[in-house]
């Protein structure tokens, strides 16, 4: 499978497993899973023929490890705008986590902290390098350091997805430090 096809399939999966399953007639179960056969059939009916081998390839090769296959099911690991319960247990975060953004968002972040926006959680990276890549998707990256240890001590709940993305409901501005 060439790189262009891999990216195309990955974007298709993100759109339909995270944001718009109903657009192609899919119904995710409460934890976000869908039968692979149902996904393949729905995609074919909507002009995007997929094979199981392509799905397995995208799941294995996706640099962000956005998806998981479990037997005959597939789901996105996080980032949903549709309601799902990923059944993640609360976890103790490292002392610091990181969030990549761009300068145009800083005034709002300073005022309101980090909010999930259309998603269910704020996404945090375990290292500066990952946060830099995340921020770079929208322009010149700015990396914020999150005092996750202090947040946790103060009662904020953290989850960690299967691909190592840390999730929390919000990050108040008091726990943020700018790192360029």
TrEMBL record:
Record keywords: NAD, Transferase
Similarity comment: family membership: Belongs to the KptA/TPT1 family.
PANTHER family on file: PUTATIVE PHOSPHOTRANSFERASE, TRNA 2'-PHOSPHOTRANSFERASE 1
Stored SUPFAM superfamilies: ADP-ribosylation
E.C. code: 2.7.1.-
Function in brief: Removes the 2'-phosphate from RNA via an intermediate in which the phosphate is ADP-ribosylated by NAD followed by a presumed transesterification to release the RNA and generate ADP-ribose 1''-2''-cyclic phosphate (APPR>P). May function as an ADP-ribosylase.
Annotated organism of origin: Streptomyces solincola
GO BP terms, alphabetized: tRNA splicing, via endonucleolytic cleavage and ligation
The keyword Transferase is assigned to this record: yes
Listed GO MF terms: NAD+ poly-ADP-ribosyltransferase activity; tRNA 2'-phosphotransferase activity
HAMAP family per the UniProt record, alphabetical: KptA
Domain of life: Bacteria
Name of the protein in its database record: Probable RNA 2'-phosphotransferase
């Amino acid at each position: 499978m060439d790189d262009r096809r891999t990216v195309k399939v990955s974007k298709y999966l993100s759109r339909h497993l995270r944001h718009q399953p109903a657009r192609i007639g899919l119904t995710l179960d409460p934890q976000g899973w869908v039968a692979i056969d149902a996904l393949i059939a729905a995609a074919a009916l909507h002009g995007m023929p997929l094979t199981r081998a392509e799905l397995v390839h995208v799941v294995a090769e996706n640099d962000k490890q956005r998806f998981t296959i479990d037997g005959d099911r597939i789901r996105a690991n996080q980032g949903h705008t549709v309601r799902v319960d990923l059944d993640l247990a609360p976890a103790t975060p490292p002392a610091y986590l990181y969030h990549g953004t761009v300068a145009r968002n800083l005034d709002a972040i300073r005022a309101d902290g980090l909010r999930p926006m259309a998603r269910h959680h704020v996404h945090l990276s375990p290292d500066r390098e990952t946060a830099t890549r995340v921020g770079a998707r929208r322009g010149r990256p700015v990396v914020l350091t999150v005092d996750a240890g202090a947040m946790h001590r103060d009662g904020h709940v953290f989850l960690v997805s299967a691909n190592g993305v840390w999730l929390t409901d919000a990050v108040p501005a008091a726990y943020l430090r700018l790192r360029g």
